[in-house]
Amino acid sequence: MATNTAGLAAQKILVAGAWESSDRPHEIRSPFDGHLVGTTYLASADQVERAAAGAVVGFERLRALGTWERAAILRAIAAGIAAQRDELAALLSAEAGKPIRDALTEIDRGAFTFRLAAEEAERMIGETIPLDLMPSSRGRLGITRRFPIGPILGISPFNFPLNLAAHKVAPAIAAGCSIVLKPPSADPLIMLKVAEIAVAAGLPEGALSVIPTDRASADALVDDERFRLLSFTGSPAVGWPMKARAGTKRVLLELGGNAACIVDQDADLDWAVKRALIGSFAYAGQVCISVQRIFVHEAIADEFERRLVAGAAKLKVGDPADATTDVGPLIDDKAAARTQEWITEAVAAGARLLAGGAPLRPDAPRLFAPTIIADAPRTARVCSEEAFAPLVVLERFATFDDAIRSVNESRFGLQCGVFTNDLAHTRKAFDQLEVGGVIINDVPTYRIDHMPYGGVKESGLGREGVRWAIEEATELRLLVLADPQ
């Protein structure tokens, strides 16, 4: 399923309804072997401005459509993605370095997200509120309705270049908001292809722009008061300063994590190990809810450790286009060097290296072996920061309360997985874990696209998931009806 780029024209960018080139060609190369996947363009300052201005006009056009029209467009986009499933998956795999099995899943999730948005557009209901709770409010009734907030600026990351962007674009369309999307510069081609599908589905001119561009141009958009919502997915180091500059606009941040698992004494070990291997090493750990820390009860720690190491040894690391590959490359050499540095630091501080710890070959630094570390000090960066690499750290605990305290020490709080068959521990985890989601008997990496998703502390602000993203993209308005007295 390799992508053949020979003779292909450069992919144009979508600027307020027009497909355009610029004087800044941008090559996209495979993270696996460096081959040229395709060429597109970085938007010029003039194109960035026209995309923003077009979003203002596009907002009025989109909000004027009936619910049935927006839902029909969203369903057509979903159908278009599904119809091009294999082609899109091959492109995604090539430009993102994602194993083809995972790329196919992301295409399916992208189509699912647009279909969900169509359904949620049709369920965007208000409520009536009796206001006559005091004699002075006799004869009064309240009615609420959600109205689109205005043009949206979406900035999406490289690790799920279709589906995380879809979680911005699809709810925007459902709510009646135009959106300017800045896709990641590492792998923008997939969303430009989805934009072609969206235009063909009948999306009004200006309702969507997809503009790869540089950091300075994106920063100008963050400051732009014409946008009423900023939806950003990426690192805390970038996201929180954006919030500070965003002015009066609403801000939705999906930021980094340092996701933990708790494996309780009564856990199903076969299942816990199976899921931990996937949660730790899928897409080379480049997932914000990738398992990075596993706290294992001391009574089962030796056996869990043995099984996890044995399972990691069986994972196939290599060409993402190979359907049998489990772990593909890191996104670039910088990520590989950082991973190596953090592992070396942890081992020097007394951690035990149980598996991996280095690239498979010196000439291919991005193909990093699945790495398992035990007993690293909490101050080591493999414990305290977001690794975004095929790396997991094991630590033992004596009591369930100890495990919860250990998870909560992190400044991140996205999701936590808890493998347990103890109902009291399940309730305690839900009550006390400082995270946006508690996943019982599965890894924190679990997500389906209609559930609320987001973090606390430094992991973000607000919630995605189609229904909740629509709420972020709308404003609640109250109508009061009074009978003359």
CATH topology label of the largest domain: Aldehyde Dehydrogenase, Chain A, domain 1
End-to-end Cα distance:
73 Å
Shape: globular
CATH arch. level architecture of the largest domain: 3-Layer(aba) Sandwich
Per DSSP, the total helix count is 15
The averaged pLDDT comes out at 96
Instruction: Tell me the total number of β-strands.
Output: 24
Could you characterize what this model shows?
By secondary structure, the chain is of the alpha/beta class. It folds into two domains: 261 residues, Aldehyde Dehydrogenase, Chain A, domain 1, CATH 3.40.605.10; 190 residues, Aldehyde Dehydrogenase, Chain A, domain 2, CATH 3.40.309.10. Helices cover 38% and strands 22% of the residues. A seven-stranded mixed sheet has the order 14-17-18-13-12-20-21, with helices on both faces. Helix 8 links the parallel strand 10 and strand 11. Helix 9 crosses helix 10. It is globular.
Briefly characterize the structure.
By secondary structure, this protein is α/β, with parallel strands linked by helices. Helices cover 38% and strands 22% of the residues.
